[in-house]
Design goal:
Elements lengths: L2 H50 L6 E2 L2 E2 L2 H7 L5 E4 L6 E5 L5 E4 L2
Antiparallel strand pairs: 1-2, 3-4, 4-5
Helix pairs in contact: 1-2
Bound molecules: zinc ion (ZN).
Length: 104
């Protein structure tokens, strides 16, 4: 058996192993790119929410508005009065259930 044959065979095996590694790494990079795109979209949503806070209007046509729905999601959502056990007026957002009370 010529000594080179064994070495060439081993080189081929090493190349196969490297090929498998390369395929795995490509899949990992693909997944990371996907996760990065998702995080980028989340960041854009968060940045838009920060900007919306400046344009929050607490009363539209006499209806109190939910700040969470506007800032976080860009929705106008009315808050409704809910029963109160004392002199504090309570309200709840029908969309996100945010509650708040204030003394009249
Ligand atoms: Zn809400």
């Amino acid at each position: 058996v010529p000594p080179f044959k064994k070495l060439f065979d081993q080189a081929k095996d090493a190349a196969h192993e490297a090929t498998r590694n390369a395929e795995r790494i490509k899949r990992e990079i693909f997944d990371l790119d996907k996760r990065k795109a998702e995080k980028q979209a989340e960041l854009e949503n968060a940045s838009a929410a920060i900007e919306r806070a400046d344009s929050f209007v607490p009363d539209i046509g006499g209806n109190l508005q939910c700040p969470n729905c506007w800032v976080l999601h860009g929705f106008h959502s009315d808050v409704q009065p809910i029963p109160s056990a004392n002199h504090v007026d309570w309200f709840r957002c029908k969309r996100c259930n945010y509650e708040f009370g204030f003394e009249p």
